[in-house]
Amino acid sequence: MTATAETTDTTKAIGRPIRRKEDERLLHGRTNWTDNIQLPGTIHMATLRSPMAHAKITNIDISAAVASEGVLHVYIGADFPDLPGTTCVWPVTDDIVMSHMPAICTDEVRYVGDVVAIVLATDQNLAVDALQLIDIDYEPLGAVVDMEEALKPGSPLVHESAGTNLCYTAKMPCGDYEAAKAKADVVVSRRFINQRLIPNTMEPRSVVAAPMGMSDEITIWTSTQIPHVLRVLLALLTGIPENHIRVVAPDVGGGFGAKLQINREEVLALVLAKKLGRPIKWTEARSEHFVSTHHGRDQIQDIEIAATKDGTVLGMKVDLLADMGAYLQIITPGTPLLGMFMYSGIYKMEALDFTCTGVYTTKTPTDAYRGAGRPESTYAIERIMDELAAELGMEPMELRKKNWIKHDEFPYTQIAGLTYDTGNYEAATERAMEMFGYEALRVEQEARRAAGDPVQLGIGISTFTEMCGLAPSRTLGALKYVAGGWEHCTVRALPTGKIELITGTSPHGQGHETAWSQIASDIIGVPVEDIEVVHGDTGRSPYGMDTYGSRSLAVGGQAIKLAGERLVEKARIIAAHQLEVSPDDVEFSAGTYSVKGDPEKSTTIQAVAFEAFTAHNLPDGVEPTLSGEATVDPLDFSYPHGTHLAAMEVDTETGKVTLRKYVCVDDCGVQINPMIVEGQVHGGVAQGIAQAMYEGAVYDAEGNLLTASLAEYLLPSAADLPSFDTDRTVTPSTTHPLGTKGIGEAGAIASTPAIINGVIDAIRHLGVNNIDMPASPMTVWRAIQAAKSGGN
Amino acid sequence: MIPASFDYVKATSVDGAVAALVKGGEDAKVLGGGQSLLPVLRLRLNAPSVLIDVSEVGEMRSVTDDGDSILIGASVTTYEVMHNELVKEHAGLLSLTAGVVADPAIRHKGTFGGSVAHADPAGDLPTVAAALDCEMVIAGPNGRRTVAAKDFFVDYFTTALAADEVLVAVRVPKLGAGWSYNYQKFNRTAQAWAIVGVAAAVKSENGTITEARVALTNMGATPIRATGVEAALAGASSSEAIAAAASKAADGTSPTSDLHADGEYRKHLAQVLTRRAVQAASGI
Amino acid sequence: MTHISATVDGVHRQGDVEPRTLLVHWLRESLGQVGTTVGCDTSNCGACTVLVEGRSVKSCSVLAVQIDGKSVTTIQGLAEGEEWHPVQKAFKECHGLQCGYCTPGMVMASVDLLNENPNPTEAEIREGLEGNLCRCTGYHNIVKAVAMAAAEMGASK
């Protein structure tokens, strides 16, 4: 069932664009960013980072720094020889070469930004001043920047003891690709570069660790997406008992995967707070963020697609090189494999031959960044479909329609073995093409070509799906992922009838406080404003798997529903007792329990909450207090999809690319709050456009990051983007009880190939069939020049 | 990040600023709006011992009509340059270009004199100063002197200003009647520096260009006057003639290569943007 | 140390600062006005935007000593008591914020933009906010919010 209308039922909270509860404090500066926390006696930590990509440390002189004003301690690697700075929880293959990132480097540095010393001082400025007084001698060992060079014999080794820069090889042959290829009339191959990105959350990372004095507990406030997972990992890495560690994620200013991590600054702050018995604070400067917070993407993709001449896709071969950077962090090796199952996209085919080779280089480690693996796979399939269409002389949308899974074929088990529960690609595409004015733009494109207009027009298509809500846990275990995929919720009725909803998800902009209240409001029948969502604090919310991979609603939403229903059922027993009838004779609707057939005889859930608190008159065997608790491990992933269309203008004289119009129709199933959904789409689309047009980390041959500030690493502002035309179709998920899917990453997954397909479509007639991202003016101009002179 | 420590002197007169500079020696620096300087200090790429703040020196804060020219105090902000009536009337190219510098908050604080004295080859306002044949009024321990724009910009971030001198004002000759102008800034994002910029001012009579000034941003170590283009534009009355003249824009230049553009591409852009700037200015 | 005094969000404040202290650090660390955030060190992001003498500046690129004797308005001083500023109201109504970290600067830049141009076009709004980066919203709803605030402020005149 696919609908296009949004909920108009005003008796329900779900489906309404309720304005956010979070906004009042955020709009008045009444916030609690980690860097706002100023505890008495705080010691400020500053980090000295390697200026060399790869070198042996031959001498360190800290004497001047130690003697500097306000300095309490200077620590180097030798002070913590066995303390790891991070850990990897996803050893993806049996052959994987693991790595050890020390909290502070001892004898060797492996990327520009590796930590070589820390200063603790009474004041942040004095700590930074002292960094400049530390003298370190380095002996260069040779940078490893290019992945293909890294794999050649004789390359310098990032980890000498491993004897290789090859981190792992993951293979997934599905069907018989060679047989499929043998039947093919057309085989198209391309090399795509999915460039390295630097996340740039607007809030830089920050951490405060403090012994609170009331117990042995140390509280660590940190700008993280994963307080629960972090607590476990900090305990495992430092040996400090888990029960002595409380992790709080206060207001967190954006994540996008960059804060799905365990970082050495967190490890050091915790260990030093314990050792020194005082609060330790560290906040990243933006220039530090560029080298010290993990990067995203960075793949070389060799893609081949085989098809018959009528446009039936037969199979696809995917050969990836994935840059790990210098060390494996939390899910570094797994990130490219999160796209492994998605290279066939929405299309039917009989074979998919997937290989991914992870490579160590002397660069900042990579890890999850908005979409994590699925943007890369979506880019590959949606780009190669356009190239196949061009090769066959087919209209690219027609090629897609011919090959996609039809809406009446769901559930559909695709070539990589995933079963897509529902989808309606026809509906989303039809709506998107109508909003876009697809045919009229094709006419304009033709006219501009015929006229030789210096500004050419292209139409970029991306008909995508993705998988989100990593679960069930059993599947993750089979993939060698160390953690589970469940989520927890407790819904607690307070004596005055207000509700505390304690969630294991940990928002950083997604509006969980509002959306979770909407879900609970409908289930337990209390007003949205009477529900307080408690999150991001292991002291108040002991169980959770946190927020990443578009999992919060897809997984966490199920836990809210079940916990709420359990509360309602317990309250029904108490209500029946109060109403002097059997629970079976009590109906529950909109917060009121009434006797079947006698609706005047009723009580409210708030009244029941008070009864449960006083416990003066509870039925036998019913414990005082009223709450419901649930931990849910979902049945499967969920599969949002959509159709994104971009009208791109290319100034052929300068190479400058302009996004003229962007239309997207997404299907994320049931929407809890369409306003928030739309906001997620806008932000995701903008980030994907930014990858296509503006962003890209650039290193020189010595391993220096050249794009090391916002002056060189370009993020689009409002002046660089248009407004977006968005809509949704609603095809509820059948594997998720609320019918929801996920929407946090969809925009970033879908938009990148739409933009590049549009750029190429504008200038394909000039002979261009590939553009490496970002499509900067010089890159596009050079591609046009190369095509003119016969190459590309 | 926070700058390394420095002393701070708030100057209240030009003489006071010069005296403080002399006293401060080589590690003293003049602070105007600080919009280029403070980021450099925050990244600790530079660490002066003393900053001499001239942003509120009265003499340097005014725009005055001085007959054939207007005199713009070095501490007049970019925002004020955009909106000042004298500048708009007599040096419209300058007010137009001021509007594409950085972003509104930076324009509120950054100064015309600061931009000129900073001499970033990617800066937009030094190019206009070159195009309009501005003169820099400089104060030092031995009094005042005037340096023409063509002699003022010496190299990357280097001007004729000695370490103990302060840029007091910029004298901008009035263009007079019959002139029209345009500035083409080519950058990847709105707030980014120019990859290449072209300032053009043309005087036309009955659809024919009689005189032209063309200056280039980021095509070398300093703002560059495209003299070949200027000469070729005299007498131009068709778009073909303008295009032919513009094709000389990169002659004699050796622009730098960086992340966003290599020298060859910059040379190409200079020609395209010169053509567009002259066409937009002249309406031909 | 240099002694400075200034009116911050309508309150007279004074103190001794090191000359190198940036305005944003004085606000956050000395005055406890932590509503204004720091997002970068190159004056690109605009998160720290405040009004000095009624005009937007990036408080990470102004020395605290330079605002001696001046008035500063931050996100924390924008509302009049319980009454939200129209820009604040419009940001909530239009969902013009997600994580909220850029919001203090984005709101203050928007206030400045509307002071300058009470009736901006969409293009003028976008250009007026070119110095403020947001990573969450794609700017779509921010632009809508500024247009809504403009309409609201125009109507109330």
What does it look like?
The complex is a heterotrimer of chains A (about 800), B (about 280) and C (about 160). Chain A is of the alpha+beta class and about 800 residues long. Chain A has 3 domains: about 25-30 and about 485-630, Aldehyde Oxidoreductase, domain 4; about 35-140 and about 205-250 and about 260-290, Alpha-Beta Complex (Aldehyde Oxidoreductase, domain 3), CATH 3.90.1170.50; about 295-470 and about 635-790, Aldehyde oxidase/xanthine dehydrogenase, molybdopterin binding domain (Aldehyde Oxidoreductase, domain 4, 2-Layer Sandwich), CATH 3.30.365.10. Chain B folds into 3 domains: about 5-55, Uridine Diphospho-n-acetylenolpyruvylglucosamine Reductase, domain 2; about 60-175, Uridine Diphospho-n-acetylenolpyruvylglucosamine Reductase, domain 3; about 180-280, CO dehydrogenase flavoprotein, C-terminal domain (Enolase-like, domain 1, 2-Layer Sandwich), CATH 3.30.390. In chain B, strands 4-5-10-6-7 form a 5-stranded antiparallel β-sheet. In chain B, β2, α2 and β3 form a beta-alpha-beta unit. Chain C is an alpha+beta fold. Chain C has 2 domains: about 1-75, Beta-grasp domain (Ubiquitin-like (UB roll)); about 85-155, Orthogonal Bundle (DNA polymerase, domain 1), CATH 1.10.150. In chain C, a hairpin with a 2-residue loop joins β1 and β2 (about 10-15). Chain C has a 5-stranded mixed β-sheet, sandwiched between helices. Chain C has helices at about 25-30, 85-95, 105-115, 120-130, 140-155, and strands at about 1-10, 10-15, 50, 55-60, 70-75. The longest helix of chain C is centred in the last third of the chain and has 16 residues, at about 140-155. Chains A and C meet through α1 and α17 of A and α2, α3, α4 and α5 of C.
